[in-house]
Design a protein that fits this description.
It contains six helices and eleven strands. It has about 210 residues and is an alpha+beta fold. The strands form two sheets. Strands 1, 2, 3, 4, 5, 6 and 7 form a seven-stranded mixed β-sheet that branches. Strands 8-9-11-10 form a four-stranded mixed β-sheet, covered by helices on one side.
Length: about 210
């Protein structure tokens, strides 16, 4: 199985390996996460409880997943991938959503050695799980976009509507466009606003964004 996974992933560039690692970690996809690693990968991590170390793809995967097991859902808030000399630097910030409505922010810097398209060594510096203050009571404005999609004017209409509400208020957008699940939150963050939640059910996506400026 490991050999098959390596053949399928070996064509990835180093940046693509970093991207696949972040997405697999956020999705808690054990198979895809382990597929990013060389079988003999070595992990060193400095986390708030102290120094941790693991060897081997299965052990490293289990160690990484153990840090996020309590969250109901993980949202990728930020992701930066670049090189520091010959090392791949992957910085990612997650928002962890919990079943009681609370959320936490965690940021990690991962410095990776990549060999033949797979991570063979990874050193991680972790911020720890930081409680996120609950949003203050705010007026909620509902916008049903109907069949309007990201390719037919939804981004422009969203921008107009978010600017029309007072700072601190929330715009809750309902859309049937599958692409909006990724595109609209990205646009909201680019505009400097806070994405509070993204919920999808039965072909409908509800995106709650708080105007920040």
């Amino acid at each position: 199985m490991e050999k098959t996974q390596q053949v399928s992933a070996s064509s990835l560039s180093e940046d693509a390996v970093g991207d696949a690692y972040v997405r697999a970690l956020a999705n808690r996809d054990s198979k895809q996460l382990q597929a990013c690693f060389q079988p003999d990968i070595h992990l060193r991590a400095l986390v708030p409880p102290g120094f941790q170390e693991s060897e081997g793809a299965a052990a490293v995967t289990a160690r990484l997943e153990s840090w996020f097991g309590a969250a109901e859902r993980i949202e990728i808030v930020r992701k930066d991938i670049y090189h520091v000399a010959n090392r791949l630097h992957v910085r990612y910030r997650f928002r962890e959503h919990y079943s009681d409505g609370d959320s936490e922010i965690i940021e990690q810097d991962a410095y990776c050695n990549v060999r033949e398209g797979f991570i063979e060594a990874i050193d991680i510096l972790c911020s720890g799980h930081l409680p996120e203050p609950k949003a203050q009571a705010a007026n909620i404005h509902h916008y049903d976009a109907g069949n309007l999609g990201c390719g037919s004017g939804l981004p422009e209409e969203f921008r107009r509507r978010i600017q029309a509400i007072p700072i601190g208020n929330i715009l809750e957008t309902v859309t049937h466009d599958p692409a909006a699940k990724e595109d609209l939150p990205s646009l909201a963050r680019l505009l400097g606003h806070q994405v509070l939640s993204v919920k999808t059910a039965e072909g409908t996506t509800v995106i709650a964004v708080q105007r920040a400026r």
